[in-house]
Amino acid sequence: xxxxxxxxxxxxxxxxxxxxxxxxxxGQEALEDDVLKELIRMGSKPQAVESQAQPAxxxxxxxxxxxxTPGLKWLGEDESDASDSLRPIVIDGSNVAMSHGNKExxxxxxxxxxxxxFRERGHTFIKVFVPLWRKEPPRQDSPIAxxxxxxxxxxxxxxxxxxxxxxxGKRVVxxxxxxxxxxxxxxxxxIVSNDHYRDLQNENPEWKWFIExxxxxxxxxxxxxxxxxxxxxxxxxxxxxxxxxxxVLPEKKWQLCPYGKKCTYGNKCKFYHPERLQQAQLSxxxxxxxxxxVPLALGKEEWRCQSSP
Length: 309
Known about the structure:
Layout: H1 2-11, H2 16-26, H3 32-42, H4 47-53, E1 89-92, H5 93-100, E2 106-107, H6 108-121, E3 126-131, E4 144-145, H7 148-155, E5 159-162, E6 164-167, E7 170-173, H8 176-187, E8 190-192, H9 198-203, H10 205-214, E9 215-216, E10 219-220, E11 225-226, H11 239-242, H12 284-307
Parallel strand pairs: 1-3, 1-8, 2-4, 3-5, 8-9
Antiparallel strand pairs: 6-7, 10-11
Helix pairs in contact: 1-2, 2-3, 5-6, 6-7
């Protein structure tokens, strides 16, 4: 009896030591329900429950040409980023700031609004690229608003300045768009910009596909950063799936058919029809054939009865 109870509770995932203690306290003839109650009271948990409570960290899997090389480490990046289920975010700082400033002022507050929006969603890898000359004092031909925000984001290791220098009084600026696309491509992330990067699309065919599939456009409405709910169009993924590494596909059988009873797809319709639960799952063509075969069969039987003596 002791061995059978021990095997039973071991299959449930409880430890042998806890089971033996409970059986010694309650006796060998104790009921299984009493033993289970005592195990719960002692605070013993099945191993299966403990393993679910502490899931193993997820590993990034290489996905085609958009994956990074194994062993590549980014400066200032924690190992927790690898277990994050959300895609890395790379923001075109100049595009976002000028969009928030109505294309007249480089508004650093627009960058802060975009960063805060992705932070609230739980994204841990957020990088903003801005040319280095934006650290200089503002001029009349290039006004800057809330410039102190750039310093705060730089201290948080979010803002990255692209190189620029002066040669014989002329400013030499590196192409920041190439930084943005390259980092987003290598991290398999999302580019936040209203720019289409057509020159970079023509430069690299892999970048062309990546920009078409991973470009997240946006709008500012009353100091509110608003990306679209359908980044790739009406028939594309939702915003949550677009920003997730593992998109969750909705169950088609629970999506009501937009045509309702007027649907002509029959059993080939991928949506849910509550009015067809009691009906045979036949296509429209099969239903018409079935309806036409019945009167033909009845007519043949009547003609045989009349012609037979």
